[in-house]
Amino acid sequence: MDRFLIRTDGNNNACEEESVVLNENEDVPKTNRRKICSSWIADFSDWLIKKETAAGDEELFCKVCNAFLKVSSGKSDLISHKNTQKHKTRSICITNGQTTIAEQFRNNTRETRLVQTLELQLSAFIAEHNLPFSCMDHLSLFLKKSIPDSKIAQQISCARTKTTNLVKNVLGPTQFEYLCQLLRKKKFSCVSTSRSIYPTRNHCA
User: Fold this and answer.
1) Which of 132, 104, 124, 100 is nearest to 116 (CA)?
2) From start to end of 64-152, where are the E strands?
3) Among 65, 67, 69, which Cα is nearest to 90's?
4) Burial tier of 92 (Cβ tally within 10 Å: 0-12, 13-18, 19+)
5) Please, is 17 exposed, middle or buried when counting C-beta atoms within 10 Å of its C-beta (0-12, 13-18, 19+)?
6) d(CA 27, CA 31)
7) I need a labelling partner for 99 at 20 to 30 A (CA). Which of 50, 67, 192, 195 fits?
8) More confident residue, 138 or 24
9) Is 64 helix (H, G, I), strand (E, B) or coil?
10) Residue pair 163/190 in contact by the 8 Å Cβ criterion
11) Comparing C-alpha atoms, which of 136, 122, 15, 24 is closest to residue 75?
């Protein structure tokens, strides 16, 4: 499809933009990137800002999702992002005063770090012994009742949902990266074998 040019005129001169439609396999040239319109930031001021990237370019940034946004179709892209499930969920958490796991781990007080360490250890114990995450619904309450004089135990707030997120989003990626680093630095053995169930397939152990 040949390129064609669409010019949209608005009340604000800063909103005059040029949109170039290219083939799917064709990259958008830097000269044809959609300009950031100041009215977009005004319309979505509660979560949208301009922020400088590592390359030194100014891009639109979502404060709620903590991510840069790629805008190719204009304001419709921002509306689509606003309606995503991730953005809605995080917006509700912020409105209700809740914090994400990453934000909770930014607190540097000693007591909070001890609570976080205990929650990580309990989550690792659940994963290591292949126990159901629902165990944490009862274990956290059990520890609070069993150790009433411990400030650390009384602050545990780690049920099945938080345990699941800690294992999948914190412990899992961290241990995977640690294992990769270990395999890069130390020698290990590979054994090729075939199972009787699938005699044509080889497996490495």
Assistant:
1) 104
2) 67-68
3) 65
4) exposed
5) middle
6) 11
7) 50
8) 138
9) coil
10) no
11) 15
**Residue 89, token pair as written in the block:** 């969920």
> What whole-number distance in Å separates Cα of residue 95 and Cα of residue 100?
12
Whole-number Å distance between alpha carbons of 68 and 50: 9
Closest of 55, 19, 13, 50 to residue 34, by C-alpha = 19
**Residue range 73-95: mean pLDDT, rounded:** 83
The side-by-side arrangement of strands in the sheet containing 58-62 is: 48-52, 58-62, 67-68
What phi and psi values does residue 194 have, to the nearest 5 degrees?
A: -125, 140
Residue 167 tokens, joined: 């294992």
Tell the residue number behind the tokens 């319309």, with chain if given.
43
Structure tokens at 39: 């009215």
Q: Is the pLDDT of residue 133 over 90?
A: yes
> For 72, which DSSP code?
S
Q: Which of 12-21, 47-56, 125-134 has the highest mean pLDDT?
A: 125-134
Q: What percent of the chain has pLDDT over 90?
A: 21
Distances (CA, A) of 163 to 82, 118, 135: 28, 12, 10
